[in-house]
């Protein structure tokens, strides 16, 4: 498991906010917001996501969940 955290590609993805955001799938959000004209929406809670938006949301949530699981595993391994 530790080898995964020492992987150069993974380390690079954590080297900046931009690369970390891309790793989580957040890097595509500005383009999505722009093409779906979110800047014109006054209440985002009322804006329904289309199929692309729901797919992006699911992917981002999945990537965050995986990251949290890995963090818990590493934290537990350090205590052993």
Keywords:
mainly alpha; 68% helix; elongated; 80 residues
Overview of the structural elements:
With 80 residues, this protein is mainly α. It has one domain. Helices cover 68% and strands 0% of the residues. It contains five helices and no strands. It is elongated, with a radius of gyration of 16 Å. 0% of the residues are buried. The model has no long low-confidence stretch (mean pLDDT 83).
List the helices and strands and how they pair.
Blueprint: H1 2-5, H2 8-13, H3 17-24, H4 29-35, H5 51-79
Write down the Rg. 16 Å
Characterize the biggest β-sheet: none
Instruction: Give me the number of helical elements.
Output: 5
Quaternary state of this entry equals single chain
Helix-strand pattern: HHHHH
The assigned structural class equals mainly alpha
Question: How confident overall, as mean pLDDT?
Answer: 83
Count of structural domains? 1
- Distance between the terminal alpha carbons, to the nearest Å? 13 Å
Assign an overall shape: elongated
Segments where pLDDT lies below 50 for 5+ residues? none
The total count of strands amounts to: 0
State the helical fraction.
55-70%
Percent strand: under 5%
């Amino acid at each position: 498991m530790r080898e995964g955290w020492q992987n150069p590609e993974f380390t690079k993805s954590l080297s900046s906010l931009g690369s970390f955001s891309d790793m989580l799938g957040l890097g595509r959000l500005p383009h999505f917001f722009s093409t779906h004209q979110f800047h014109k929406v006054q209440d985002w809670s009322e804006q329904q996501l289309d199929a692309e938006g729901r797919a992006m949301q699911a992917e981002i949530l999945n990537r965050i969940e995986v990251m949290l699981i890995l963090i818990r595993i590493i934290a537990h391994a350090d205590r052993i």
